[in-house]
Amino acid sequence: MARGVATQKKKKDQGFPYRFPNVMDGREARGPSDRPRLLVKYEQQVRKALSEQFDYKNPYQVPRLEKIVLNIGLGEAARMPKLLEQGFDALGRLSGQRPVVTRARKSIAGFKLREGMKIGCMVTLRGLRMWDFLDNLVSVALPRTRDFRGISPRAFDGRGNYTLGIREILIFPEVDIDRLDKVPGMNVCIHTTADTDEEAFALLDALGMPFRKAKA
């Protein structure tokens, strides 16, 4: 490259200027002894029960949670950018972590969608925030669903991962309806280290996921 020719670095997309102080500061303020309830349950009860149920020879074979991915799709954000800002804000508040903006991978003329257009936001939770979210989902959010009768036990992908569709994110108490012009839905994908769906089901069931019981 010739000298004297300045090159301009491409700035990383930072999304929207929100920090969500009411949820993010609390996570760092907690001490090391203040561990999530479900993590303690996994270590003291679930891990031993799974080891006995599937007769694992090595403790590292026992399935565990790996990550939880939350995704809000907002196709209408192409013509109403405000919806994307609101969804971004809501996802940050209910997850306690800054989301990233997702973009269209290809253009679709029928939906007036162009490649690279902002169409949603997502968060990948790991560690303590992952356990906090799962506890909130199981203990608070899902029971607030109207006419809730349990979640489907058939939404596993064959590789030990489970995907749950939520119609309205208002079931999370952190979300304020007054901040939303339109209430979006959300996909929750729970990734585990299980090799089979049977093992993943046993793990999530032991952690308290309210699966719908099969009819006799």
Structure explained in plain terms:
This protein is of the alpha+beta class. It has one domain: Ribosomal protein L5 (50s Ribosomal Protein L5, Chain: A, 2-Layer Sandwich). 31% of the residues lie in helices and 15% in strands. The protein is built from 5 helices and 5 strands. The protein has helices at 21-29, 37-54, 81-95, 127-141, 197-206, and strands spanning 65-73, 100-103, 118-125, 162-166, 186-192. A 5-stranded antiparallel sheet has the order 2-3-1-5-4. Helix 2 (37-54) packs across helix 5. The longest helix has 18 residues, at 37-54. It starts with 20 loop residues before the first helix and ends in a 10-residue tail after the last helix. The relative contact order is 0.18. Mean pLDDT is 84; it is low at 4-14.
Q: Quick gist of this model?
A:
The protein is an alpha+beta fold and 216 residues long.
List keywords for this structure.
single chain, about 220 residues, alpha+beta, 50s Ribosomal Protein L5, Chain: A, five-stranded antiparallel sheet, 5 helices, 5 strands, about 30% helix
Main sheet: which strands, in order across?
Answer: 2-3-1-5-4
Biggest sheet, in brief?
A: 5 strands, antiparallel
| CATH fold topology | 50s Ribosomal Protein L5, Chain: A
Number of helices: 5
Helix content: 25-40%
What would you call the shape?
A: elongated
Q: Count the strands?
A: 5
CATH uppermost class: Alpha Beta
Proportion of β residues? 15-25%
| End-to-end separation | 73 Å
The count of domains is: 1
- Radius of gyration of CA atoms, rounded to a whole number: 20 Å
Average pLDDT, to the nearest integer?
A: 84
| CATH architecture group name | 2-Layer Sandwich
Coarse structural class: alpha+beta
Helix and strand element order: HHEHEEHEEH
Supply the CATH superfamily name.
Answer: Ribosomal protein L5
Regions with little confidence, pLDDT below 50 for 5+ residues? 4-14
